[in-house]
Design brief:
Layout lengths: L1 E2 L38 H7 L35 E11 L6 E12 L5 E4 L1 H4 L2 E8 L3 E11 L4 E6 L19 E6 L14 E12 L11 E4 L11 E4 L4 E9 L4 E6 H12 L9 E8 L4 E9 L4 H5 L5 E6 L2 E2 L7 H10 L5 E7 L4 E7 L31 E5 L5 E6 L4 E3 L10 E5 L2 H6 L5 E7 L6 H12 L4 E9 L4 E8 L7 E8 L6 E8 L3 H12 L1 E2 L2
Antiparallel strand pairs: 1-3, 2-3, 2-5, 3-4, 4-7, 5-6, 6-7, 8-9, 8-11, 9-10, 10-13, 11-12, 12-13, 14-15, 15-16, 16-17, 16-18, 18-19, 20-21, 21-29, 22-23, 23-24, 24-28, 25-26, 26-27, 27-28
Length: about 550
């Protein structure tokens, strides 16, 4: 498609974002040094078509003869143009490079697959659009509506107004390296207007039938690599065999290295009926890209647009959000959609999925549940730490990488710096529930105020209350730390209090704690973070935004 037009501590710092993205076939505007597209290939097809040899002549003594059936005329590939459509999508989009949310439009392609106007295209062409206009050769422009979509497969089916359309069929042919193919669509080469984007048809061969389908915007099992040139705006258009049948749906291209990619017909056919029926397959309803956000120092799925009425829309995700975890699993760490799609495929479309989002427009960290609780921020836990004098040390830079840690039974989870290499997930007998400790040195964290660290404990035996846990913390810390008081705490999942202590043990180390419980009161959580240097504030931010109990 081509476009034209967590709860956070104070002390978090950002740097200028510098994001490198794999170019989608639908993203025009990038410079292109490749030669121009092939506009007519019918002559080439005719030149390479061979006639099957005739049967040997009959022997003279034979009294009867047969007449060979006439040869079928070779298919004229130029006829496919009537089935290839140009799609204009208008809506609200967010750009990860500029951080701007804007009203704009984009151009992509699609292929008609039924006489009543069903069209297959890419998810990234149409998802999030408020208006879809489709230009059909010989019929002008008609409106369309989205039926079903999948961001993991980067596929969508739209329905055109009216009927009587010329359609193409998906091929049953097993794709093979070297087979001749054609790419049809509407590349927006010069960033012209919708009306100025012209149809093109380019020729090539299948270079590979096993290209990687793990990309920054999709996770597909079978992808065809080919050398039929495609550009921005070709996204969603068909890859065709010589007989005019559909070999795949184009979705990405690298003209600088002459490598282009299509979702194989078998992949499309496997989900086509579900998409036509209005089902959204392997989808929460976003058009996004896996990036590493340098401003916040974390990877995630950048949300460019959101499908209205989708689980993402219902939970409160908007363009410009960065999805960082799902089911408490960090996503996009490898720059692809794989972890994101694995969670969706494992949990299913209607499951309640824990999700964490950075709202880049405000710096808030939001948490909620897909098909459950809307995303929202908890109380800013670092408010009373603003005036705490932290030690001047060489550890002022923020942690760049985080890991998810859990207890030995896999019941509680939190995200901590990878530099906190020591983790202990043993059951806490005294507290009556699961527990996990993490620190550069657990012994140093337990016995001194020189090492940062975290302890996350859950009391599920009915012997604890929020008041009793807070009282125990006061007994332990008040004699050796300055008590800065407590605040109400509520992150939507758990409510209780957050407490603050400073200048602990004659040092400038601070301790921050959250003591809370779910609405059911079935258990109590205690999360304690020791803040030794400035960067530990950001670590505390991440910990309080990510801790979760699997009930």
């Amino acid at each position: 498609m081509s476009h034209t037009s967590r709860r956070r501590f104070s002390g978090s710092r950002g740097i200028t974002a510098c994001v490198t993205l794999i170019a989608l076939a639908a993203c025009s505007g990038a410079s292109d040094d490749a030669s121009g597209p092939v506009s007519d290939t019918s002559d080439a097809v005719a030149a390479t078509t061979t006639v099957a040899p005739q049967e040997p002549a009959a022997e003279p003594e034979q009294t009867t003869s047969t007449t060979a059936a006439p040869e079928a005329e070779p298919f004229d590939i130029s006829q496919v143009e009537s089935s290839v459509v140009k799609i204009l999508a208008e809506g609200t989009f967010a750009d990860p490079d500029t951080r701007l949310v804007f009203e704009g439009s984009g151009v992509g392609s699609g292929v008609v697959i039924s006489a009543d106007g069903l069209v297959v295209t890419n998810n990234h062409v149409v998802t999030g659009a408020a208006l879809l206009e489709v230009a059909v050769p010989g019929r002008g422009t008609v409106n369309a509506r989205l039926l079903g979509a999948s961001e993991c497969l980067d596929l969508a089916v739209i329905d055109l107004e009216g009927d009587g359309y010329e359609a193409r069929e998906f091929s049953d042919l097993e794709p093979r390296t070297g087979l001749r193919i054609f790419a049809a669509g509407y590349p927006a080469v010069d960033e012209g207007s919708f009306d100025e984007v012209d149809y093109t048809l380019t020729a090539g061969i299948i270079a590979s039938t096993s290209a990687s389908g793990e990309s920054s915007w999709s996770s597909v099992d079978m992808v065809l690599e080919h050398d039929a040139m495609i550009l921005g705006g070709n996204s969603g258009g068909p890859l065709l065999y010589e007989d005019g049948s559909i070999a795949g749906i184009n979705y990405a291209g690298r003209s600088d290295i002459d490598k282009n990619y299509a979702i194989a017909a078998s992949e499309v056919s496997a989900v086509l009926d579900r998409l036509i029926a209005g089902e959204h397959v392997d989808s929460i309803g976003v058009n996004g890209t896996a990036i590493y956000d340098y401003e916040y120092g974390i990877p995630g799925i950048w949300v460019a647009s959101v499908r209205p009425g989708s689980p993402a829309d219902a939970v409160g995700i908007i363009p410009g959000d960065l999805i960082t975890t799902m089911q408490d699993i960090p996503i996009a760490e490898d720059g692809t959609y794989q972890a994101y799609c694995d969670v969706i495929r494992t949990q299913g479309p209607t499951a309640t999925i824990n999700i964490e989002v950075v709202r880049t427009t405000t710096g808030e960290v939001l948490s909620g549940q897909l098909n459950g609780r809307p995303i929202e921020t908890g109380i800013a836990s670092g408010g009373n730490l603003d005036d705490v004098a932290l030690p001047e040390s060489g550890d002022s830079d923020e942690y760049t990488e985080y890991q998810t840690v859990s207890d030995d039974e896999g019941l509680i989870f939190a995200s901590v710096p990878t530099e906190w290499v020591e983790v202990d997930g043993s059951f806490n007998v005294d507290f009556g529930g699961p527990s996990v400790w993490a620190a550069p040195s657990i012994e140093g964290f337990q016995t001194t105020f020189d090492d940062p660290g975290m302890t996350f404990d859950v009391s599920a035996d009915g012997t604890k209350t929020i008041d009793s846990i807070v009282n125990d913390l006061n007994i332990a810390l008040n004699p050796i730390c300055e008590d800065l008081g407590a605040e109400p705490y509520d992150d939507g999942l758990y409510s209780g209090v957050s407490g603050f202590w400073a200048d602990c043990g004659g040092t400038s180390t601070a301790v921050v704690a959250v003591v809370a419980e779910p609405a059911s009161g079935a258990f109590q959580v205690r999360v304690v973070v020791q803040v030794v240097s400035e960067r530990d504030l950001a670590a505390a931010d991440e910990i309080f935004a990510s801790f979760i109990v699997v009930e």
